[in-house]
Amino acid sequence: MTIRRFSSRTHKLDSSFLLEHLKDARSYKRIAGYFTSSLFEVAHELIEAIPEVKIVCNVDIHPDDLKVAKLRESKMIGRWNEQDIETEALLNRDRYRRLDSFLAKHGQVIRVAPDSICGFLHGKAGVIECADGRKLGFMGSMNETSSGWQRHYEILWEDDSPEGVAWIEEEFEFLWNAARQLPDAVIREVKRRGYRREIDFEDIDDDDVAPAALIESPLYRQGFSLQPWQQGFVSECIRHYHNHGIVRLLIADEVGLGKTLSMGTAALSLCLLSDKEHKKRKPVIIFCPATLCEQWQTEMIDKLGIPCARWHTQKKAWLDPEGRIISPSGQQFIAKCPLRIGIVSTGLMMQSSPEKEYLLGMRFGLSILDEAHKARSKQGFGKDAGEHNNLLAFMRDIAARSDHVLLGTATPIQTRPEDLWDLMGILHQGSGNFVLGNDFANWHWPEKVLPILSGEQRVTQPNFAWELLRSPLPDVDSSNEPHSRKLFRLIREDLGLLNIKKWDIKNPLTDLSYDSRDYLEDELERDIAGASFFQRENPFIRHIVLRKRVTLEDAKLLPRIGVDVHPQRNLSKDEHTFTSLFEGKALRTSEDFQQAYAEARNFGKALAQSGKGSGFMKNLMEQRICSSIVAGLNTAKMLLEGRTVQEESDEQLIEIKVDKNSDEIAVLERMIARLEKIKQDPKLEAIIHYLEKEQWLKHGVIIFSQYYDTARWVADSLAARYPDQPVGLYAGAGRSRLYQKGDSVNIERETLKRMVAEHQLEIMVATDAACEGLNLQTLGTLMNIDLPWNPTKLEQRIGRIKRFGQVRDKVDMLNLVNEKTVDEKVYDKLSERMQDRYNLFGSLPDTIKDEWIEDIETMGEKMDEYIDAQKQANGFDLRYTSTMEPSEKDWRDCSDVLSRRDFSELMTSGWSDTK
Predict the structure, then answer these.
(1) In degrees rounded to 5, what are phi and psi of residue 653?
(2) Cα(868)–Cα(889) distance, rounded to whole angstroms?
(3) Which of 69, 434, 671, 707 is close enough to 503 for a disulfide, judged by CB 3.0 to 4.6 Å?
(4) Cis peptide before 328 (omega within 30 of 0)
(5) Nearest Cα to 471, choosing from 541, 396, 539, 540?
(6) Main-chain phi, psi angles of 594, to 5 degrees
């Protein structure tokens, strides 16, 4: 029994120790330090031949993150991808292949130990059972890498004493039992890198376009991936591209299922497919409400690595993702976007503007409309009833000038199913005139086919069925159902159209063979899950993709996380303080606030009387003061100084400026005087109460406001109260900040997100402008400082923490509204419909309309009408269940990648220099 000492200064450690003892060894146990791809690089062939190998590595992942396998995978891949993939994978290709080969042969022989168990594994040691049965223990400073064994200065002690070997084995067994298996996703990434190669754009197969472009995007580099239903939507787009040459689809997934990412990925795929086939780059335009423009831009760059330009309605110029102007100013420059994809507010398209005319003079490769249900026919019984609103008329013209059209909405059928025909009418324009069939096809008329689609009327007569089938005539690949596919094939074979893209035919039913007609009659009699043939097979099913949250939860594709909605007295830990703060569901307010609020209402009335305010404009000051006293004061003072307050609603651009000596001036002065008397905003008191007395701070908290003024005030206030606690402000481009110890700095949004993911930041304040794409599952509570009159936004907010990786079975959400305000009345009606802890807001309308608020009882009735309509059965579940499941071909395995240089060139071609 001896101790031998080695130094890399005097010995070659790999040959004088490691290789000598590993030859024909029986087992090898190793505490190896940090997990890297260079494991086994030195003694690969020898280790491969050892019957028993066990290696424990380090991984600096928070213990909470290790509890969820999916999050554990993403964290490890994210760590790896902090390095430059392109260079690292090329230089170490052989290393990855060796590691892949070893893992394929030996299985799960590597485990990763979290810092919470052992701290960082600086103690490196191992035990080798030699060919003759002797056991050697060794300790040293080297990692299990070529650098550790061959290049670095290292020292090593060899100890073959029984007590020395037993001591090392005891330490090893503790770490091995505490560690977790190497995630499958990491093993697959090892293989992918071993065979990774950059290929030319022209050589990518159509079905591989999206993964080739996305596998090394920020989303995948961070260890995440598209959800199966998002990937399924992209696959559906590619199928339509192959079937029709163009894509006309409406994605109607419920709120919170990531439609932005689905449509963004589809946009990328269609850009690349079109470029490849036509050798010509065409502009891509995205229309969405003003409140979503920055969200779209952020999501595209942060998740997909696609830089998009955003048109600034007031500055009349294009902005990059950092909010910098990147084009000349002027209305005409809307037609000269400096990047491939431009984002424009639908509010601008709701009114007459020169910008609309410039856009209507262009042709687009792809047009996307988000929140598409805002494009609709006018309702009611007046002379304008049935006319297209401005957005619908504009989008029909744009669709006629676009190759591909994608529409997105979480509410495809509001309270009137007929609204759906407005959206299908957009898809049908121009090259999409196959969507509903020829001008005389039954599918154009709701009154003719709604009873069929709803199941009230069953089609039994073959002649009528043939009328419905022959225009538009389905492609064989337009259905997933085997019997329907067989019927469509028989029809096309009979008519000589099997390989011809023709959708409108005049042939009578008698032109079909007897076998085909018999098969048609059989299909008319056959139901699937209670749905008749034309409920399952119709243009609406073919062009509308709809997936429900509850279906995804039932399929275990989404976590079923409960939500406790506060304030609730029965959930409070401190009822005395709770009672002093709240009256029912609303915050108690002072006489000064109530008088200031009354003046805010008077301000709206004064605007209306002067002809300058109605609808959203009339309510603007009310909403600001209901958000926070600071937001109300700042807005009032701006107006009093003669400055213009600008805000874009979903449907229009609002500008308010008050005239000197007007009634509005006097109202503002009275309101400011009242607000300045208020020493403490009750909303801040409530926030502090929940952080401290209700102990939400220990779970981590995200605090949302729709206004930057309010968010900044909350962040400033909390940073002052908790100087030792880092506080983040996550806002629009250039306005994010990090606070600590009485100071603050500007910070990138990505850095804030990373700090939350690493559990370094437990208080985050955010605006809605930065909400989309923000993954905060390490935080367990959420506060809404103000109540946007848009339940969709509330669902998006809770979706930031109600996602994979959330360790709490039930999260907490606090909604703050002031008593005796319109917010209290709106929230009272909303909260009655927020009791389903698993499907919060999932079936509420996207927007609470101004006319509903005038009569609160009407608002409740309108919501109930909407909810009942959403509960009705439809044929979409049968069609799109298969697109929710993970596909056999996982994009994360894609080893043929589009180089970032080629990708950048394709996506940064401006509209003025498209080829």
Answers:
(1) -95, 125
(2) 38
(3) 434
(4) no
(5) 539
(6) -60, -40
The distance of Cα 643 from the centroid of its chain, to the nearest Å, equals: 37
Spell out the SS3 assignment of 211-239.
HHHHCCCHHHHCCCCCCHHHHHHHHHHHH
800 and 782 in contact (C-beta within 8 Å)?
yes
Sorting pLDDT into bands at 50, 70 and 90, what band is 710?
Answer: very high
The strand pairing partners of 188, in sequence order, are none
Please check the confidence at residue 834 and state whether its pLDDT lies above 60: no
Cis status, amide bond into 567, omega within 30 of 0: yes
In whole numbers, what is the pLDDT of the chain averaged over residues? 82
pLDDT (tens digit per residue) in 848-904 = 444 444 555 555 666 555 555 444 445 666 666 656 665 667 788 888 988 877 888
DSSP-derived letter for residue 732 is S
**How large is the angle between the packed helices 259-278 and 228-244, nearest 10 degrees?**
30
Distance of CA 380 to the CA centre of its chain: 36
Interval 620-626 mean pLDDT:
87
Distance between CA atoms of residues 454 and 450, nearest Å = 6
The pair of three-digit structure tokens given for residue 56, joined into one six-digit string: 């424990």
- Burial class for 599, CB neighbours closer than 10 Å (0-12, 13-18, 19+): buried
Note the pLDDT tens digit of each residue in 282-312.
999 999 988 788 889 988 998 898 999 999 9
In tens, the pLDDT along 231-267 reads 889 989 999 998 899 999 999 887 778 888 999 999 9
In the 3-class helix/strand/coil scheme, how is 235-255 assigned residue by residue? HHHHHHHHHHCCCEEEECCCC
Task: Give the pLDDT confidence of 353-363 residue by residue, as tens digits.
Answer: 899 999 999 99
Radius of gyration over alpha carbons of the chain, in Å? 31
Sign of CA dihedral 74, 76, 81, 86: negative
- Beta-carbon count within 10 A of 554 CB: 11
What is the distance of C-alpha 415 from the center of its chain? Answer: 27
- Ranges 140-144, 156-160, 749-753, most confident: 156-160
Provide the H-helix boundaries in 366-497. 390-400, 419-427, 446-454, 462-470, 482-494
Helix H or strand E segment including 7: strand 3-7
Nearest to 799 by CA among 255, 218, 412, 261: 255
Give dist(CA 412, CA 424) in Å, integer. 10
Residue whose structure tokens are 């984002």: 343
* C-alpha–C-alpha distance, residues 455 and 873, integer Å: 9
Tell me the whole-structure pTM to 2 decimals: 0.75
| CA–CA separation, 198 and 92 (whole Å) | 15
What's the maximum distance between 2 C-alpha atoms anywhere in the chain?
Answer: 103
